[in-house]
Amino acid sequence: MESPGAAGAAETRSHRLAVIGGDGIGPEVTAAALTVLDAAEARFGFTTERTDVPLGADNYLDTGELLTPEAVELLRGHDTILFGAIGSPRVTPGILERGVILALRAELRQAINLRPVRLYPGVPTPIAGLTPERCDLVVVRENSEGSYVGGGSTVHRGTPGAVATQGSTNTWYAVHRAVDFAFRLAQQRRRRVTLCHKTNVLVEAGALWSDVVEEVAARFPDVEHDYVHVDAMCMHLPVSPERFDVVVTDNLFGDIITDLGAVLQGGLGVAASGNLNLDGSAPSMFEPVHGSAPDIAGRGWANPAGAALSLALCLASLGEGDAAAAVESATARVLAELPELSGAGMGGSTAELGERIAAAVQDSGEGVQSSLMTQLAAVQAGLRD
């Protein structure tokens, strides 16, 4: 893998990066990821202009504001966003999650939540007999609709007669974006797409998803496709993950099955995600999926691997495919060396592990085979064309 910088590029590439450290362990893992980014910049000959954006519990408690129009416009002025985690026991659950995270995804038109489920060599998994060769799939989760944005209300609240309703929104437009992206990604991988839904109960929404899959599949005759109920997915995923390549699903189902997928790959601490804006109208956002974990904040016990792998996805989305692959490879090598994947037994603090990954980025070791980072960079380039 040759560094563009080493090749003597005439002009340094620069990217505008917004950084939202957030709450709990968010700032810690984000700082470690930025250390890794420094190493990638030095090796691959690009730079980033970084802006800290104070969104999270402290900002909300200090100002009473969640996501303001001014913050949205500030973020729009950047090429990409690196996000740590949001959530605090000082704030009622749901306020920050809906008022910041979901609001950001909506305001910035982040149509896809992309979550790789990959077991790297040497990383322990609780699934007996599972090997890295059998666990390499990607979940494409529709990110803007479903139960998360369907209208809801409660009448007679606080009485035995309380009635709560919660809807689900599914449009051809949003479903088509997700399915089209899934097929494009599958073309770069093993050419298989699986729709995950509950069509036997959620009949109307399920029919829409199924119809769109058939419509899109006609444009990709080289990609196979099949269907699995979400409850069956929860059985198949830990037992035979090798049957899946690219899984496309709705917002709620995607949220659930990707946490199950994280267990296969070693836990939430090593799981990464990207919230992708597909049309270039606003920046995409990349974040580890482990949450703010306030109980271990400040102790150096958080594994920064999820943040580093999210950084790799970020670099791939920016077109820095070689740097992205190097960050993924470096993170995988360090993960394989850890005696434990989290807590005091990791063999180093959050910051120290970030430095170890950064050092590994500078080493031109063997890359990860069939890297999602390279595949994502190719799909994003195709969308831009």
Enumerate how many helices there are, as a single number: 12
Widest β-sheet, arrangement of strands:
2-1-3-12-11-4-5-10-8-9
Extract low-pLDDT stretches: 1-9
Instruction: Report the strand count.
Output: 12
End-to-end span in angstroms? 25 Å
Helix content: 40-55%
SSE ordering: EHEHHEHEEEEHEHEHEHEEHHHH
- Name the average pLDDT: 93
Rg computed from alpha carbons, rounded to a whole number of angstroms? 20 Å
Helical/strand content category: alpha/beta
Share of β-strand residues: 15-25%
Q: Largest sheet, if any?
A: 10 strands, mixed
Shape: globular
Q: What layout of secondary structure does this protein have?
A:
Elements: E1 13-22, H1 26-44, E2 46-52, H2 57-63, H3 69-76, E3 80-85, H4 95-107, E4 112-118, E5 136-142, E6 152-155, E7 163-166, H5 172-188, E8 192-197, H6 203-217, E9 224-229, H7 230-239, E10 246-249, H8 251-264, E11 272-276, E12 284-288, H9 305-317, H10 321-337, H11 350-362, H12 372-384
Parallel strand pairs: 1-2, 1-3, 3-12, 5-10, 8-9, 8-10
Antiparallel strand pairs: 4-5, 4-11, 6-7, 11-12
Helix pairs in contact: 1-9, 1-10, 1-11, 5-6, 5-12, 7-8, 9-10, 9-12, 10-11, 10-12
